């Protein structure tokens, strides 16, 4: 039963970004849409975590390459970048976004990456473990990270008011409304719907235990996209309050308000020798 549920979750996750049109929509959401504040707040915090780092960097679960392009624009000499994603459509988008810049590309799952042990000084896993077998993914992160190297990991915060309302009330309501609209004869394109996402987010304490178990030394989490508003009120709020774009530092918290963050970031250092056991079954290429 557990294996069947994992398979279904994996199918939902894979289906989201196999279509180039969905990939373009994901990239556009960084600039405009309900998730824009989340994406911009996350990128701001990841950028902050990477300031003291340099060297060979792996962006695993890279999506359409928003972080890759940001680093190429802001720190062109800081990193030798490798971008990896399970979706070939995402990797094609990275190739377009990177242009003539020298970036290594790989189509692979985070649980089974085609890189040698200790290959990277920095590994970024931004919004990918929610869609993967998290424990296996964390072990692979540790394997490809050199001793003393830096891991930067983000995760949706399943304990935030926003996520609790979104997942337990708002999305189920929209799915129920869509069923009622179907029975009422509303055309498919006009019905409310929320596709199955395959998301399985972990609380910060559990993720940090996983990181320790893989030989990483995690720091305290930092929370981002801090907001007291829950769906659908957040949509109304963000229409008339846009000052956050100029003050992204105000969207993150290490203090008392952190529990309002819809996501969180953990940095961790690789200790000792990286565990062996990785494989190289995926495809890789250079642009």
UniProtKB/TrEMBL annotation:
Q: Its domain of life?
A: Bacteria
Q: Which GO terms describe its biological process?
A: methylation
State the Gene Ontology terms under molecular function: methyltransferase activity
Q: Which residues cross the membrane?
A: none
Establish whether keyword Transferase is in the entry: yes
Q: Which UniProt keywords are given for this protein, alphabetically ordered?
A: Methyltransferase, Transferase
Methyltransferase as a keyword?
yes
Question: Where does the Methyltransferase type domain start and stop, copy by copy?
Answer: 58-152
The record's InterPro entries line, in alphabetical order, gives: Methyltransf_11, Methyltransf_Superfamily, SAM-dependent_MTases_sf
Q: Which PANTHER family match?
A: METHYLTRANSFERASE, N6-ADENOSINE-METHYLTRANSFERASE TMT1A
Q: What is this protein called?
A: Class I SAM-dependent methyltransferase
**What is the species listed in this Swiss-Prot or TrEMBL entry?**
Amycolatopsis tucumanensis
């Amino acid at each position: 039963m557990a294996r069947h549920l994992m398979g279904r979750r994996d199918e939902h996750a894979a289906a989201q970004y196999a279509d180039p049109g969905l990939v373009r929509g994901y990239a556009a959401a960084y600039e405009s849409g309900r998730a824009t504040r989340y994406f911009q707040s996350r990128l701001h915090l990841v950028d902050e975590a990477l300031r003291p780092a340099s060297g060979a960097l792996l962006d695993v679960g890279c999506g359409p390459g928003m972080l890759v392009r940001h680093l190429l624009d802001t720190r062109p000499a800081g990193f030798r970048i490798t971008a990896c994603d399970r979706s070939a459509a995402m990797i094609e988008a990275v190739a377009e976004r990177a242009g003539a810049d020298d970036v290594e590309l790989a189509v692979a799952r985070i649980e089974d990456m085609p890189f040698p042990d200790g290959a990277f000084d920095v590994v970024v896993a931004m919004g990918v473990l929610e869609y993967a077998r998290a424990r296996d993914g964390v072990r692979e992160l540790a394997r490809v990270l050199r001793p003393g190297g830096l891991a930067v990991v983000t995760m949706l915060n399943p304990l935030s008011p926003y996520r609790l309302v979104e997942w337990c009330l708002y999305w189920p309501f929209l799915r129920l409304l869509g069923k009622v609209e179907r029975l009422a004869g509303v055309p498919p394109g006009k019905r409310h719907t929320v596709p199955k996402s395959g998301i399985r987010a972990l609380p910060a304490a559990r993720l940090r235990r996983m990181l320790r178990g893989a030989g990483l030394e995690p720091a305290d989490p930092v929370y981002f996209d801090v907001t007291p508003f829950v769906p659908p009120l957040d949509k109304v709020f963000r229409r008339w309050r846009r000052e956050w774009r100029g003050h992204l530092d105000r969207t993150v918290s290490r203090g008392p308000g952190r529990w309002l963050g819809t996501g969180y970031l953990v940095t961790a250092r690789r200790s000792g020798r990286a565990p062996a056991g990785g494989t190289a079954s995926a495809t890789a290429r250079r642009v």
